[in-house]
Structures are given as structure tokens and as C-alpha cells.
What we know:
53% of the residues are buried. The chain starts with a strand and ends with a helix. The chain is of the alpha/beta class. It contains eleven helices and eight strands. It has a single domain (2-314), classed as Arginase, Chain A (3-Layer(aba) Sandwich).
Amino acid sequence: xxxxxxxxxxxxxxxxxxxxxxxxxxxxxxxxxxxxxxxxxxxxxxxxxxxxxxxxxxxxxxxxxxxxxxxxxxxxxxxxxxxxxxxxxxxxxxxxxxxxxxxxxxxxxxxxxxxxxxxxxxxxxxxxxxxxxxxxxxxxxxxxxxxxxxxxxxxxxxxxxxxxxxxxxxxxxxxxxxxxxxxxxxxxxxxxxxxxxxxxxxxxxxxxxxxxxxxxxxxxxxxxxxxxxxxxxxxxxxxxxxxxxxxxxxxxxxxxxxxxxxxxxxxxxxxxxxxxxxxxxxxxxxxxxxxxxxxxxxxxxxxxxxxxxxxxxxx
Length: 315
């Protein structure tokens, strides 16, 4: 399998600036260990709308949604064309809102295939403009991809214009849910709100916390997740670096959460899923070198994982 790197330096879906520099931090990490990873593979730079951070927010419950929509459309098209040309896309993203575009691009390329999603993240990212406490769209990608509004837990009065943009975001690539809640697996989830808990409970979404994975055994928990995705034809893995333990590694991410995974645990999880031969795309998101309290440690850790995964993908 040939890899193509999709560099998506967008951070307009986040509440804190700086994740747009995450890809550069990864490249510096590679240079510092004399690894030519970024020269061995074809790559595409996806244009961004990062300049819109200087504009006034007019959608307080879905900040910069019009430009996030355009960004996700770009990501969708880059991912779908990469898959259609028989490359394995590794998407290096700034903030996690772009995952809407990644998921939509996979389904655009393979509309008849069932998709499973493995979300390695401290957060559920299941909010909508109706429920979001922050209005930051990096907390909404899964709800958008599954077309979930969750109005039963609504706390925000959302404008008509925002609803229209939200509906467009939900319909990128294909005008339908991109995957079923039955085919979503959370690993490392430990920081989420009651509105997201409602969706998880209502849909019986498999979610395994770090302490549960350690007590039950990592291999056993991943096998349970693989069995949950037995019906799917393909799997997308999204690795948000805030799934990692911020005290052990660094605070180089926009929303760090204590008691996370070690890099060895994340590597083992991803490798076990890749061994199923169903994984068609991998994303790494939310590295923020401006917030790193240990130099470039978060990017160095993420690159180490990425470099080892490369061998599993290409062999």
C-alpha cells in the first residue's frame, strides 16, 4: 500500500490557536531524528481559511462554521481522490473539526461500503450547535458525520443561518449519515458532557476508558472493539493526541486531559486495528506546539507513533 500525506493546517474549528503549526512540528521532529518520512511519500497541502480568525464570530454556537464547511469540503475532495487513486491517506490535521471532511471523503470514494470509525480521543466530539457549551466545531465532527442534532438535549437557540450551514456540513460528500452509531468505537474517552453521554447511552456506543483498557487488558479491549466492527467493510482511525497522558508526555494540545494513554498503548491499539486489513485511512490531529511545556515533545511522541505505524501500513 502506497501512502500519501494530506497536510491540513487548519485550526479554525478550535478554541485555541496553534494547532495549524502541528504539521511543521511533526516535520521538525522527523528532521531531529534523521528520518526522511516526509520525503519518502507523496503529499498534498490542503489550502486553509486560517485568516478568518481575525473576523468577528457571527455564529456563537458554531464559530466560523461557514469557513469550517468550506475547509471540510476541501478535505473531503482530497481524501476521496487519494483513495480513488489507490493511495492510503494519512491526514495530518490541525484541529479535529476536519474529521468531518475525512469521513465524508472516505464515503464519497466508497459510497456502497460500510464504514467503521475508531476514535482515539479524550473527548466524544458529539456536540451540535444546539448542545455545544463552547461553539467550537472541533467538538462536533462525529455528530455532523452521523447527522445527529441531539435536540433532546438542546440548550442553545441557534439562528436559521447557522442551522443551514450545519445542515450543509452534515451533508458533505453524501446527503446521508456517513456511518452508523453501531460502528463507532471510542478508546480513551474521559472528558465529555451530559449531552454527549445521552447519545452514547441512547445508541449503546462502545466506549472504553483508559483505566478499563488497562485493567481488562489492551488486547482484550481492542478485540472487543474489532468484534463490534465485524460487519464493516472499512475502518477509519482518528488519533487525537489529547488521548495521550498530558502529564507523562506534554501539554502540547489544545484540550489536554490527565490520565491518558502512553504512546506505546496508542501504537499497540492502532497496530491491532491495522492487522485487520480493513483500515483505509488514518488521521493525526490537535498537536499544538505553542502550548507544549516540554519543547516539541508532543509532536516528537506523535511522530514516533506515526513512523512505526508506517511500516505496518506499507508491508
